[in-house]
Design brief:
Layout lengths: L6 H4 L10 E5 L3 H11 L4 E5 L2 H10 L4 E7 L7 H10 L8 E5 L2 H10 L3 E4 L5 H25 L9 H14 L5 E8 L2 H8 L1 H19 L5 E6 L2 E7 L4 H13 L8 E7 L7 H13 L9 E3 L2 H22 L3 E10 L6 E13 L3 E3 L1 H11 L2 H23 L5 E5 L1 H4 L4 H11 L7 E6 L7 H14 L2 E7 L6 H4 L6 E4 L1 H7 L6 H14 L3 E4 L4 H10 L3 E3 L7 E2 H12 L4 H10 L1
Parallel strand pairs: 1-2, 1-3, 3-4, 4-5, 9-10, 12-14, 14-15, 15-16, 16-17, 17-18, 18-19
Antiparallel strand pairs: 6-8, 6-9, 7-8, 11-12, 11-19, 11-20, 12-13
Length: 583
């Protein structure tokens, strides 16, 4: 049997099933009985006839009493004195009070002291008394709920939801006052928590909150703690942001000078037509531009950031259409085996380019980080995988031979429970061997959710995929960890190559990494090779394969085919390719 619950029953507040307690303080027996008769059906009544009895009841039942009905003319105390004492005592200050009086002048004084309402004598009809009592209790409970939820329990600052509402109210009452939206982020707060403990980290946050209030409170500014280590401030325009931030950092550090670093993002004097949350989103964008910097700690949202924000939003909006219309083109950068006297083609890397019909060629350095941050990178990766498999199959049919191509598998891809099945189906449906598609997994990916990722890579390797550790040398993994990882090829980080070949670069470190590859019995690819000096040095040290602008920039499939044709003219090209694959 289906039972329909009335909406008003579903929305009852917690505790609605119990009767609220009302303390009636009235010395006249008849008046007291009248109030009891009016309210007894809905409330639990405690009735007393003197100030002394009222004080005793308030102290013993302060947490349970929902309302006090207070007569002003008591035999031993004046009701106004009791009201004052209630509002001065933290245990009873929040209990709402309705004054019972026939004295019109006393009504005003009662309200000034802290009474919520009054009921005149003689009492009005029961419905009026019941309505005033009910409404007063509801308002009081709503007020208490707001007090509990509007402030962060640790710092005492507003929570985000109330902060935005109060900031909007500030604009309503101060429409002509220039204001700033500020975002403060504590650098590496998680490490502070881990190194010095939660209690120390909490004290840092408390001191930051206190310092913010001290800095902007008198000017009418308000603040909130948006997340663990992020604070929002809305205040009249500041003229010296460095002084403001210095004061916050000094307070945060306490006696541990220099231990805490805070970055500040500013959206200054923004037009009040801009939504409040948008102003703080912009300040956060500015703050993130100095993340990790040891020299710059303050950044301002400006026109350039605004234009980039609009540009990024356009790219996000047009991403689904770009996928559907195949605006993303897969380019191929050749890899060469440099062990023979004449370098020989041994594969390539698939790299994506966005050829926008209006914006032209969009750099992957622009859209890939954007898609990673917004969770679209998995869709793009799968598109690249499909296009790459299709191109490998087309070349295999055209030339009768396979040129292995490596594709990127991002950290987000590695967390997909269907990854192994997805890649396996792609290769099988494309009519390829698993070794035709090499999988590049960044070094850093192995350090996040390591057990799950290693298990997944083991499955892929067991099927027959060639696993390349990409960006090796970027400094994430330990030597002990590398020795246990499922790896077929080490691919040296491009940034690392550039750094060791700069003036005063450390070529010894390069030699050490080559020796690591030899120890693990896996071939090494160096990417980002741009000069003959780099090529010759890597060759002498024992590097197996090379990729970079020295040989070729990434090319569209049609242009890349010239490398395949040249390779096919070399005597026994298949054995050279096989040798690299076996390594």
């Amino acid at each position: 049997m289906n039972v329909t619950i009335p909406i008003n029953e579903m929305q009852k507040k917690p505790g609605a099933e119990r009767k609220r307690k009302i303390l009636i303080v009235e010395d006249e027996f008849v008046n007291r009985e009248i109030l009891i008769a009016i309210l007894d059906a809905e409330y639990e009544i405690i009735a007393v006839g003197s100030g002394t009895e009222a004080e005793a009841s308030l102290l013993s039942l302060s947490r349970e009493i929902s309302l006090v009905l207070l007569d002003l003319n008591l035999p031993d105390r004046h009701g106004l004195d009791i009201l004052r004492e209630m509002k001065e005592n933290p245990l009873t200050a929040k209990i709402p009070v309705i004054v019972l009086t026939s004295d019109k002048e006393a009504e005003v004084e009662s309200l000034n002291i802290g009474a919520i309402d009054f009921i005149p004598k003689p009492y009005p009809i029961p419905k009026v008394v019941q309505a005033r009592v009910k409404r007063t209790i509801e308002l009081s409970e709503d007020r208490d709920l707001i007090r509990e939820t509007e402030c962060d329990h640790l710092t005492g600052l507003y929570t985000r939801e109330y902060f935005y509402r109060y900031a909007e109210q500030y604009d309503v009452f101060h429409p002509d006052v220039p204001t700033d939206a500020l975002v403060l982020d504590v650098n590496r707060f998680q490490m502070i928590n881990e190194r010095f403990g939660k209690q120390y980290a909490d004290q840092v946050l408390i001191r930051i909150g206190q310092a913010i209030v001290a800095s902007v409170g008198e000017a009418g500014g308000i603040a909130c703690r948006r997340s663990a280590d992020t604070f929002l401030v809305y205040c009249p325009h500041l003229t010296d942001y460095h002084a403001f931030l210095d004061a916050i950092i000094a307070a945060a550090c306490g006696d541990d000078k220099g231990r805490i670093r805070i970055r500040l993002g500013v959206s200054a004097e923004t037009e009040k037509t801009v939504e409040m949350q948008t102003r703080f989103d912009r300040a956060k964008i500015a703050a993130d531009t100095v993340r990790g910097s040891f020299t710059d700690c303050i950044a301002f949202y400006d026109n350039a950031m605004h234009e980039k924000e609009i540009y990024d939003e356009r790219l996000l909006d047009e991403f689904p259409r770009a996928i559907a219309e195949k605006q993303f083109a897969v380019y191929f950068q050749p890899k060469f085996d440099v062990r023979p006297d004449t370098p020989v083609l041994c594969g390539s890397e698939a790299l994506v380019r966005w050829i926008h019909p209006e914006l032209g060629m969009i750099s992957p350095g622009v859209f890939i980080p954007l898609f990673e941050n917004k969770g679209l990178i998995r869709m793009l990766d799968r598109y690249v995988w499909r296009e790459t498999v299709s191109q490998i199959a087309a070349w295999k049919k055209q030339f009768g031979r396979t040129v292995p191509v490596s594709v990127n598998v991002s950290r987000i891809d590695m967390l997909d429970p269907d990854l192994v099945e997805t890649l396996r189906d792609l290769v099988i449906n494309g009519g390829l061997d698993f070794s035709d598609l090499h999988l590049e997994i960044t070094e850093s990916a192995y350090t996040e959710n390591a057990r799950q990722i290693i298990d997944t890579v083991n499955q892929l390797q067991k099927i027959g995929f060639v696993i390349e550790m990409d960006d090796f040398g970027s400094g994430y993994s330990s030597l002990n960890m590398i020795a246990t990882l499922p790896i077929d090829v080490l691919k040296l980080d491009m940034v690392f190559i550039r750094s060791v070949f700069r003036e005063n670069g450390n070529l010894r470190m390069l030699k050490v990494i080559v020796e690591i590859a030899e120890t693990l019995s896996v071939p090494m690819i160096a990417e980002g090779v741009e000069t003959a000096e780099q090529l010759n040095t890597l060759r002498e040290m024992g590097c197996d394969m090379v990729q970079g602008y020295y040989f070729s920039a990434p090319k569209p499939a049609a242009d890349f085919e010239k490398f395949i044709r040249e390779w096919l003219q070399i005597k026994e090209p298949k054995s050279v390719l096989k040798e690299v694959e076996v390594c």
